[in-house]
Write a structure and sequence with these properties.
heterotrimer; A alpha+beta (351); B mainly alpha (297); C mainly alpha (301); B: 297 residues; mainly alpha; MetI-like fold; C: 301 residues; 2 domains; 0% strand
């Protein structure tokens, strides 16, 4: 039995449809990430699961119970908000205890849970402080603590790390991951940052303009993207995409040369070829391309080269960190037909 | 000197009307009033210094003074909380994005603008007449109304109702305050299994506390200064039996009916001190129940 | 249909969803209806006294009392004519008096208070903080404390029985509330405007006249409207300073209705009452948004 089941879920604001028929089954115990550009509907979807937004059409079930008209207060789930939403006039302790008090839990049980959550999140010294006395990272931990103490069957996260600075974000990512490993509860996580998605998720749902583009594990999304959108959205830096023409088992890549089309892939006519920066070899390959380096980005562990090629496209190539490349240098690149991704005229994956 | 003039000329030039007014109409009169409160003065003859006699008389022998205090206190203590409750209740009803909110807001606020007018005071006097509208409505429901205007036990209620009728002004301020509470807090509380009552007492009221406090102080001061309603409905004397002898009415009579300017000045100062005292008490207690968002530490 | 009988297995998703949606919509509609009923009833109760007065102004006296109805059986328009001339002085004089006093007061208020506000908000001068604190403190002075000495002052100046005690203080920025209101507004205008004008060689007076004032019309309008309403309704001031009925403003004249005539002539009295608040209602209806915004802005510092 799935933890959460969405069937043909739609959402419109007045006459404007935002979400067009989502079907999704969230498995119990998984860390599911909803990711996509802003406006894709991921937060709306999450809020519908939480009960904070009306469901225009379709059903949402938590466990085996349809919850379309079950108020949020009765869904036995917890939510961590992007802006933390801590009660500003209550101490951290009272913030943590608020939900439990509402559920009329015995005093000792409340105290026990609050102490446990505070210990896990290392906020014990902050218990008597007010939210305005806390830093962003501390507030975030209190928000998470408030979610933990309820011991819910489902955790919802609405872009919880977006308001933190880069360094803190990395730190919190690790903490959230270890929290998940520790608790094992089903978690649904919304973010626009594909790095968060890739690093934390057991499964990822890529959303775009209110529709699901692909559902899969990080490995599947990275190595077998279902369409151009997913291919260019997942993976940083972005995949190189070249226009190409397929005819009779051969692919003419942007006028730069031809690649044999692998036998299991069938395509004809105008297609696109995708190659990730680390899949482009430096030196000759199955298809050899000459180009000129227009920009060098040195990151320490690797170097990214922007190479302009004859067709006018610029390819992004990953090189080892110790290599010495200079701008305006000529360079030879190679593309392997078995490494490349093929997308047909509609942008869908071939084979 | 020259430099001082040059630098400050524009500022003081623009400030000059207010400066003149301040000295002539504010500071001067306040000090004069204090002085007069220690005199016996009936305008015809020059003021006679009598030291604290006015105050002794006031506190030890003047029954009407204590009656006026009592009536005014009763009015303030009953009408202000009721007014604020109506204001908050209606503000909360309007807050949830009703379509015709503009209309309702205007309709509820209109009485506030008209409430201090003589026309409304006159109207109120007739509404509470023994054969008036209020009693007619009560009779419709099978009861019988009292002699609102001539029975000292009931007369104050006419003014209390008049005050509550004007809840539109604090209501507007409550509306603005309610808007300032982030919706997310209610959502988080919703997820934390809080029902509507719990949400009200645990979130709305504490976060609205500064606004409640502001309204409380403002309305309290207004209530202490209330004059027209009591004057008109009581016929200018606080009748019946001084049951409508608001402090301001008593003061007016002492000054302009009996020309006891010295005593009236003393009364005015006592009023000032009472208002200051209550305001100070309000501020002092606010420490315990009003928490401002942007305090540090 | 209750939730217990609907399971995904029994019906298609679309049908299930529709059932939930319709049930929820029905509940929401009922709740909204209740709320509207409450609001409508409350607003009717609020408005009823005024409507009753309007209706009574058109009824003959013997039909006024005890009559809860809002539609007169016969429209006695003569009440208005009778009321207009009921007092020894006609209401033409009273309305004229009120207009003169109010208009002059409004002008005085707007000008002097904007001057003071400009000084506090935009100009630097030594002692500014002290004067500002004192100005704010005057907000807390009850009128009654200064009433008697002011009266004595005007008595000695021979100004009692004239309009001068009512009008001149307005030209001296006597009402700190308006100063405060305008300061809040001025603060929102970017200082760069002043600075640019200064670089262009404008004196502070020029800056006020050509830049600040035109941009502050909403604030000035708000101040003008409140000033109008409060001055038009002012009772204590005229009560103290005007003894000659020829000089009465409308509120004083209304009071004479009940004190001189005693009990009779309710229809005409209500008629004049209606007329007296008509200008206020008119202003309110037209400038509603400004008024409400002014309240909110002054309320929340």
């Amino acid at each position: 039995m799935a933890a959460v089941t969405l069937s043909e879920v739609r959402k419109s604001y007045g006459q404007v449809p935002i979400i067009h028929g989502i079907d999704l089954a969230v498995n119990s115990g998984e860390f599911l990430v909803l990711v996509g550009p802003s406006g894709c509907g991921k937060s709306t979807l999450l809020r519908m699961i939480a009960g904070l937004e009306e469901i225009t059409d379709g059903t949402i079930a938590i466990g085996d119970r349809i919850v379309n008209d079950l108020p949020a207060s009765q869904r036995n789930l917890s939510m961590v908000f992007q802006s933390y939403a801590l009660y500003p006039h209550m101490s951290v302790r009272k913030n943590l205890a608020f939900g439990l008090v509402n559920l009329r839990m015995p005093r000792e049980e409340i105290d026990r849970r609050v102490a446990e959550a505070a210990r896990i999140l290392r906020i014990e010294e902050l218990l008597e402080r007010k939210p305005r006395q806390l830093s962003g990272g501390q507030k975030q931990r209190v928000a998470i603590g408030r979610a933990i103490v309820r011991e819910p069957q489902l955790f919802l996260f609405d872009e919880p790390l977006s308001n933190l600075d880069a360094e803190l974000r990395v730190q919190m990512r690790v903490e959230l991951a270890s929290l998940y490993n520790r608790l094992g509860t089903t978690m649904i996580y919304v973010t626009h940052d594909q790095v968060e998605a890739m690093t934390m998720a057991t499964r990822i749902v890529v959303l775009n303009k209110g529709r699901i583009e692909q559902v899969g594990t990080p490995y599947e999304l990275y190595n077998a993207p279902a369409n151009l959108f997913v291919a260019t959205f997942i993976g940083s830096p972005k995949m190189n995409v070249l226009a190409a023409t397929a005819a009779g088992g051969k692919v003419d890549v942007a006028g730069l040369g031809t690649l044999p089309l692998p036998s299991e892939k069938q395509a004809e006519g105008k297609i696109s070829i995708g190659v990730r920066p680390e899949q482009v070899t430096i030196g000759a390959g199955e298809l050899t391309i000459e180009g000129t380096i227009t920009l060098v980005e040195y990151l320490g562990s690797e170097v990214f080269l922007y190479v302009r090629v004859a067709s006018g496209d610029t390819l992004l190539v990953q090189a080892p960190g110790q290599s010495q490349y200079k701008i305006h240098d000529p360079i030879t690149l190679g593309i392997d037909s078995k490494e490349a991704h093929y997308f047909n005229g509609e942008g869908l994956r071939v084979g | 000197m020259h430099k001082f003039l040059r630098r400050n000329f524009a500022g003081y030039a623009f400030l000059s009307p207010w400066l003149i007014g301040f000295f002539l109409l504010a500071i001067g009169p306040i000090l004069a009033s204090l002085y007069l409160s220690f005199t016996k003065y009936n305008v015809v003859r020059p003021p006679q210094w009598i030291g604290l006699d006015n105050y002794f008389y006031m506190f030890q022998m003047d029954q009407r003074f204590w009656k006026a205090l009592q009536v005014t206190f009763q009015f303030v203590v009953i009408s202000v909380p009721l007014k604020l409750m109506f204001a908050l209740g209606v503000a909360m009803a309007l807050d949830k994005g009703i379509r015709a909110i503009g209309w309702y807001r205007a309709l509820f606020y209109l009485p506030s603008i008209l409430g201090g007018s003589i026309a409304v005071a006159i109207l109120w006097r007739q509404l509470f007449n023994y054969d008036g509208v209020i009693n007619s409505i009560l009779r419709l429901f099978g009861g019988d109304g009292p002699y609102w205007l001539s029975d000292p036990k009931y007369s104050l209620w006419t003014l209390i109702v008049l005050a509550i009728w004007q809840f539109g002004s604090p209501m507007l301020i409550f509306l603005a305050g309610l808007r300032a509470i982030p919706q997310e807090l209610y959502e988080a509380a919703e997820i934390d299994a809080a029902g509507p009552v719990r949400k009200f007492f645990a979130i709305t009221v504490p976060l609205l506390a500064p606004v409640i406090f502001f309204n409380l102080v403002l309305q309290m001061i207004e209530a202490f200064k209330s004059f027209s309603g009591a004057f008109i409905i009581s016929g200018g004397t606080g009748a019946p039996l001084d049951s409508l002898l608001f402090f301001t009415v008593y003061l007016y009579n002492e000054a302009f009916a009996f020309l006891r300017m010295g005593y009236a000045s003393a009364l005015a100062w006592v009023l000032l001190l009472i208002i200051a005292l209550f305001t100070a008490i309000a501020f002092w207690t606010s420490k315990y129940w009003v928490h401002y968002e942007n305090e540090r530490g | 249909m209750t939730e217990a009988t609907i399971t995904p297995a029994m019906l298609s998703t679309a049908e299930v969803a529709r059932a939930y949606r319709e049930a929820k919509a029905k509940r929401a509609k009922k709740a909204a209806l209740l709320k509207h009923v409450f609001l409508i009833i409350t607003s009717l109760i609020m408005i009823y006294p005024l409507l009753w007065m309007l209706a009574s102004s058109l009824k003959p006296d013997n039909q006024i009392f005890g009559d809860l109805g809002l539609w007169p059986r016969e429209f006695q328009w003569q009440n208005y004519w009778a009321g207009w001339n009921a007092l020894p002085v006609s209401f033409t004089t009273f309305f004229w008096n009120s207009t003169v006093v109010t208009v002059l007061s409004v002008i005085g208020n707007v000008i002097s208070c904007s001057f003071a506000a400009y000084a506090f908000a935009r100009l630097e001068f030594s002692g500014k903080t002290i004067w500002f604190a004192l100005m704010m403190m005057t907000l807390m002075i009850p009128y009654h404390v200064v009433l008697i000495p002011q009266y004595l002052l005007f008595l000695n100046l021979g100004w009692v029985d004239t309009y001068l005690p009512l009008i001149v203080p307005r030209f001296l920025a006597g009402d700190a509330f308006f100063i405060f209101l305008m300061i809040q507004f001025f603060r929102q205008l970017p200082r760069e405007l002043d600075e640019a004008a200064m670089i262009d060689g404008c004196s502070p007076f020029k800056i006020y006249w050509a830049i600040i004032m035109p941009l502050s019309l909403p604030a000035m309008a708000t101040a003008a409207i409140f000033s109008f309403i409060w001055t038009w309704e002012d009772f204590l001031g005229p009560l103290v300073y005007l003894n000659d009925m020829e000089d009465y403003t409308v509120p004083l004249a209304l009071r004479s209705f009940i004190s001189s005539d005693g009990v009779s002539q309710y229809g005409p009295m209500f008629a004049m009452s209606i007329l007296s608040i008509l200008p206020i209602i008119l202003f309110f209806v037209i400038f509603q948004r400004l008024i409400i915004r002014g309240i909110a802005m002054s309320g929340l510092k």
